[in-house]
From TrEMBL, chain A:
The lineage of its organism: Bacteria, Pseudomonadati, Bacteroidota, Flavobacteriia, Flavobacteriales. It comes from the Bacteria. Residues 3-230 form the ABC transporter domain. InterPro entries: AAA+_ATPase, ABC_transporter-like_ATP-bd, ABC_transporter-like_CS, P-loop_NTPase. It comes from Formosa algae. Transmembrane segments: none annotated. Keywords: ATP-binding, Nucleotide-binding. Pfam families: ABC_tran. This is ABC-type multidrug transport system ATPase subunit. The keyword Nucleotide-binding applies.
From TrEMBL, chain B:
InterPro entries: ABC-2_transporter_component, ABC2_TM, ABC2_TM_bact-type. GO terms for cellular component: plasma membrane. It is a multi-pass membrane protein. It comes from the Bacteria. Keywords: Cell membrane, Membrane, Transmembrane, Transmembrane helix, Transport. Pfam families: ABC2_membrane_3. It is found in: Cell membrane. Its main location: membrane. This is ABC-2 type transport system permease protein. Belongs to the ABC-2 integral membrane protein family.
Length: 301, 373
């Protein structure tokens, strides 16, 4: 086990940020922590990176306890906070050298590990970090977190506010790092990224809802899901919510995802109901469940 | 050691890249030294003087002529009535008013005694006191002359000669206020700049989030603190050097004592200020808060340092309070070393107190600096 979290609870004044959270991350695993803003993801990261002490429970990283062996942990983990926090007034190269020095290493020593990422930003190595684009900043931050060849990498919402192309590239980089036997714990509010992890934990309001592989999580979904659309989406949601057989209704991209409480659901019935409510251009089709559907299912019950 | 050196190097890079900060560090203190040293004067000159002469006698004219001749009173105006004169004081046209009553000369000769009314604008109490002394001196001098004349005319017994004092002004023979002020203002600048910079520095890392990143590294907190504060120690010493050169070249301030001694003291003094800055930044979350708290302390330290008002004339409780003021010790030391040529044993008490202060302040600062929160 690379990371073990046992019954961790943490509260700030009146807010309970984490409630009795437990999970394990295996060595070399890419583990995703999926949940909305304010779910407690950052608090969990800060506890695991020894920046914050939990109120109760224990946690260990690579076998070291986060409270008693914090010094050992700081030597072998890489942490990339959610907010870009490198020196904006230093260049790419200076930032890297600075972090290499405080980890008692050099850029050359672990160059192999960051090479793939570094070559992409190397042409700009004399540019100050503050003048980089969002995607480049994120690559630089990842390089800095990897400079000392950590065993475990903590990435707190690394793709928040990053363009879709850079996001895709970033996840490819994580996959490559995983092949180099680095355990990665990554958090994200984007459900579509969850499918790229080995295992995911869904977290909401400081509680873990479910832990499983993305595939298993989708297949556990019991109810059929239907994409529904009409000329007026807002009215459609309101009307669907009033439907006596509805089980869940929530917007999903260009559609509304609908599940029915009955076992013998009939699309024609629903269509007739919607037409009676003066909705037009009605389309109903069956669709495959995603992680987001699982999350919505768990979060609302 | 390598880590500390690298952090120091990084800090200097950041300081020199900060286009907004650089002039604050090097140009502003020099300007302040030049402006403040020329402007912060205790001399009372060019007193705006007016008079009402109701007597129109030769004695009253002679008395006014005495004021006219004095270099301290330069704007002399005559007011025909008390009403006009008091509204002139109200407007601020004059600060000192001399009222010579009717029959002044006649009564003086008859009674050998008379009184004169002097009105002084005392909004600035210190200046009013000085003005009163000047006026009294002038009238006394006039009095002696008058006595001689009177004793000659009337056949009275000869009065004894008046005892005169001849002062010798040591350490500042010409009573040049700049000699007194420049070293003090230099202390003020070194303190202000190093406290503000060190107070804001670590908070800045907190604000931009880099501190969190650094806290997850194996760096030791003393390495980090030394690396962060050392550049400001260098800047403080550099400021002292620039200030001393300017004091010599522009203000021609003497330097009687030992230069290494002053540098020895300053090197310890700056540690106190840096410790204080670090302490402030540990208890604040933004640069704005750090700035406000630093200002609060700087204002108290400066006003209670003996720089502008002598500590001896403060109330007893305030005098005890100044014992906790590091600026007071530095002001004393710099004046002693530069103007009196005091040696090591003379400043030893201040040196020991400052060293103790540095130890306590930095101890508190390091203790309160936490890598976790």
């Amino acid at each position: 086990m690379s990371i073990t979290v046992t019954n961790i609870s943490k509260s700030y004044k009146n807010v309970e940020a984490l409630k009795d959270v437990s999970f394990n991350v295996k060595s070399g695993e890419l583990f995703g922590l999926i949940g909305p803003d304010g779910a407690g993801k950052t608090t969990l990261f800060r506890i695991l990176t020894t920046l914050l002490k939990a109120n109760s429970g224990t946690a260990s990283v690579t076998g070291f306890d986060v409270v008693t062996d914090y010094k050992d942990i700081r030597n072998c983990v890489g942490y990339m906070p959610g907010k870009f926090s490198l020196y904006q007034d230093l260049t790419i190269e200076e930032n890297l050298n600075f972090f290499a020095t405080i980890f008692n290493t050099t850029l050359e020593e672990n160059y192999e590990l960051i090479k793939d990422i570094y070559v992409q930003i190397e042409p700009f190595k004399n540019r100050r970090a503050g003048q980089l684009s969002g995607g480049m900043k994120q690559k630089l931050a990842l390089c800095c977190a990897l400079i000392h060849k950590p065993k475990v990498l903590f990435l707190d919402e690394p793709t928040t506010g990053v363009d879709p192309v850079s996001r895709k590239e970033f996840w490819e980089m994580l996959k490559r790092l995983q092949q180099k036997h680095i355990t990665i714990l990554v958090s994200t509010p984007y459900m579509d990224e969850a499918a790229l992890c080995d295992r995911i934990a869904l977290i909401q309001d400081g509680e873990i809802l479910q832990i499983d592989t993305p595939k298993a999580m989708i297949s556990h979904h019991k109810k059929d899901i239907y994409n529904v659309s009409a000329h007026n989406m807002y009215q459609l949601i309101n009307v669907l919510k009033q439907y006596k057989h509805q089980h869940s209704v929530y917007p999903f991209g260009a559609f509304v995802h609908y599940t029915d409480s009955r076992t013998d659901f009939n699309m024609a019935d629903l269509k007739a109901y919607l037409e009676s409510k003066s909705l037009s251009e009605i389309k109903i089709e069956k669709t495959l469940p995603t992680i987001e559907d699982t999350f919505m299912e768990l979060a609302t019950t | 050691m390598k880590t500390i050196l690298y952090i120091i190097q990084k800090e200097f890079k950041q300081i020199f890249r900060n286009k907004g900060m650089l002039p604050i560090i090097f140009v502003m203190p020099i300007m302040q030294l030049i402006i403040l040293s020329n402007a912060a004067t205790f001399e009372v000159n060019h007193i705006k003087f007016g008079y009402i002469d109701q007597d129109h006698s030769s004695t009253s004219r002679a008395l006014i002529e005495t004021f006219n001749a004095s270099s301290y009173f330069n704007v002399i105006r005559h007011y025909p009535s008390e009403n006009l004169a008091s509204s002139a004081i109200l407007r601020g046209d004059i600060d000192v008013l001399l009222n010579i009553p009717l029959y002044f000369e006649r009564d003086l000769q008859k009674d050998q005694y008379n009184t004169l009314g002097i009105t002084i604008n005392a909004i600035d109490g210190a200046a009013a006191g000085v003005e009163n002394v000047y006026v009294t001196q002038l009238i006394q001098r006039f009095n002696t002359r008058l006595k001689v004349e009177l004793t000659q005319t009337s056949d009275q017994f000869v009065q004894p000669e008046i005892i005169e004092t001849i002062p010798l002004f040591w350490y500042n023979e010409t009573l040049n206020y700049k000699t007194y002020m420049v070293p003090g203002i230099l202390v003020l600048l070194v303190t202000m700049i190093t406290l503000f910079l060190s107070g804001m520095n670590i908070v800045r890392e907190k604000e931009i989030g880099t501190l969190e990143q650094i806290n997850v590294t194996p760096i030791k907190k003393n390495q980090f603190i030394i690396g962060k504060l050392f550049p400001f120690w260098v800047i403080g010493m550099g400021l002292l050097t620039v200030g001393l050169v300017l004091a010599r070249l522009i203000f021609n301030i003497p330097f009687l004592g030992s230069l290494p001694l002053l540098y020895l003291y300053t090197s310890i003094y700056i540690l106190v200020v840096l410790g204080m800055g670090l302490f402030i930044s540990n208890f604040t979350d933004t640069q704005q808060q750090a700035m406000f708290i630093s200002w609060f302390f700087v204002v108290i330290f400066i006003l209670m340092s003996g720089l502008f008002t002598p500590i001896d004339s403060m109330p007893k409780w305030a005098q005890h309070l100044t014992e906790f003021n590091p600026v007071k010790y530095f002001v004393e030391v710099i004046r002693m070393v530069m103007l009196k040529g005091s040696g090591f044993s003379d400043i030893l008490p201040n040196l020991l107190k400052t060293t103790l202060y540095a130890l306590i302040m930095n101890g508190l600062a390091v203790w309160s600096y936490k890598k976790t929160n």
